[in-house]
Design a protein that fits this description.
alpha+beta, five-stranded antiparallel β-sheet, four-stranded antiparallel β-sheet, disordered C terminus, DNA-binding
DNA sequence: TCTGGGGTCCTACTACGT
DNA sequence: TCTGACGTAGTAGGACCC
């Protein structure tokens, strides 16, 4: 899918079509997740710090990601892909490999092209969004082809032409070559794929080591035998938070680690897993990153056990100077646990303690948990939780923070719209739906206006015979 | 206002048992 | 009994991807 998150937002918000749209974390340490092609013209790109993006494109629309919406669209696209072949390997929400041969598609170019064009038309019809298709004999080449096809195109790499096509390309085109490997190769006098092929395998192994060197050499010769794998077992589960302001207080650090451990176990359990190795991640004030891990005697999904292991690991880390990120992960996954009676009894006690803590927190101010949920689910950097904790400011009431930029709302009188911005006790809403033919009207309300409430995203494409707002996406 | 979040894979080093 | 070789597990860090 092309500029997926940004395209989905443009489809959902007619007033943004043809405009620069940037989706990502809006907090002081946010980065760009996706920029629309209009925003890319200003030099904005993925992984760029949001502050830099704002300087380059001050008039762009800045929105927080809505993963629920993207997941629904992704599932629609994956359903179309699975109709083509039983072998579909999703890479992310917006990308997948499909083994057309396993789907019985004739292996001539005309058949492949026909399938590709029909798929693009189907994606457009079902989601309203543009998707690009790369057709080739291997995963690496298909990926390169799809990059070349963007935006909104189709590209087939004809068998036999692969090496000539790859030769002049930058080494960075090959999967697995990032900034570090790219620099390494450049220092060895290698900047193009053709030069990798000329250098020979021995030289590549000398430069990059056995595994990486051999793999890269094979790729440069257009050799890639990796199969399309439909089912992938996940190998780890982790959660991490970057804080708007570095945390210096050791007690707070401990509290955050405990909270992250619980969230991690929630994820672990939701996935039906347990795990044996607990990993603590700490990014310090100077961006240096440490990990510490501990392997248990058997796999667990017990929040108390994970929390205590994470706490022990924290004790071996110096956090003076402050931390900007904390994370807790579990690896060595299994689908069973070695619970014993003691652990179960402990779990019971933990649950009760957690409930009591939760009740206490709610009493203190329910805004806290709500904001954390937003970081968790929506990667919204807007939450000022850290400022609250660090500065001792009064918590911002829920109504102030509920209106994240880009999120859907419904007003009792004006109907469906989305949040353009909020602050100083006001929230500005544009009233439009994916079906609107012209940009909707903008109105401003008090953030605590009882007529205004959060709403679910509307389907991008109305079902046949239905108008907008008639129900959830199928 | 410099640098997110959730992953995978690889390498190097150390400890330990045989 | 001592020592070296070797395989394996655990640990930490780095690179990369979307």
């Amino acid at each position: 899918m092309d500029a997926f998150y940004a395209s989905a937002e443009q489809a959902a918000k007619p007033s943004l079509r043809g405009k620069a749209v940037v989706v990502g974390g809006l907090g002081p340490r946010g980065v760009v997740a996706t920029a629309s092609y209009e925003a890319r013209r200003f030099g904005v790109h993925s992984a760029m710090p949001m502050g830099q993006a704002r300087r380059l494109a001050p008039n762009a629309a800045y929105l927080v990601p809505r993963f629920g919406l993207y997941r629904e669209i992704s599932e629609q696209v994956m359903t179309l892909l699975r109709a083509l072949s039983p072998l579909v390997e999703p890479l992310s929400l917006d990308e997948a490999f499909v083994d057309l041969e396993a789907g019985g598609v004739a292996d001539d170019q005309a058949s492949a092209l026909a399938v590709g064009e029909r798929l693009r038309a189907d994606i457009k019809a079902v989601t309203g969004l543009a998707g690009s298709v790369g057709l080739a004999a291997s995963k690496m080449l298909a990926k390169i082809a799809s990059e070349e096809a963007k935006p909104d195109g189709l590209r087939l790499i004809v068998p036999g032409t692969e090496r000539d096509l790859l030769a002049p390309m930058s080494v960075r085109t090959l999967p697995g070559v990032g900034p570090a490997t790219g620099d390494h190769l450049r220092r060895g006098g290698i900047t193009t794929v053709g030069e990798i092929a000329e250098a020979g395998e021995d030289e590549l192994v000398r430069l990059l080591g056995k595994s990486h060197g051999s793999a890269l050499y094979a790729m440069a010769l257009a050799r890639d035998e990796r199969p399309v794998v439909a089912e992938r077992e996940s190998k780890s589960v982790s959660v991490e938070d970057t804080y708007d302001v570095d945390i210096h207080d050791r007690v707070r650090v401990r509290g955050e680690v405990a909270r992250l451990a619980e969230r991690c176990v929630e994820r672990l359990r939701a996935a039906g897993h347990s795990g044996r190795t607990i990993v603590l991640k700490v990014r310090r004030f100077d961006f240096s990153t440490l990990t510490r891990s501990e392997t248990l005697r058997g796999p667990t999904d017990d929040p108390g056990v994970v929390r205590e292991a994470a706490a022990r690991l924290l004790e071996s880390v110096d956090t003076t100077g402050g931390v900007r990120l904390l994370g807790v992960g579990v690896t060595g996954l299994a689908d069973y646990t070695q619970e014993d009676l003691f652990a179960q009894a402990q779990a019971q006690a933990e649950a009760e303690a957690a409930e009591a803590l939760e009740a206490e927190r709610n009493a203190e101010g329910e805004a806290h948990e709500e904001a954390q949920g937003e970081i968790r689910g929506e990667r919204d950097g807007e939450s000022p939780v850290e400022d609250v904790a660090e500065t001792g400011d009064a918590p911002i009431p829920p109504a102030e923070r509920r209106w994240a930029a880009g999120h859907d709302v419904r007003h009792a009188d004006y109907g469906h719209g989305w949040v353009q911005g909020s602050g100083l006790g006001r929230v500005t809403v544009r009233f439009e739906t994916p079906e609107s033919r012209v940009p909707g009207r903008v109105r401003t309300f008090r953030t605590d206006d009882p007529a205004l409430e959060p709403a679910e995203p509307l389907p991008l494409m109305a079902a046949p015979g239905e108008g907008a707002g008639q129900g959830p996406l199928v």
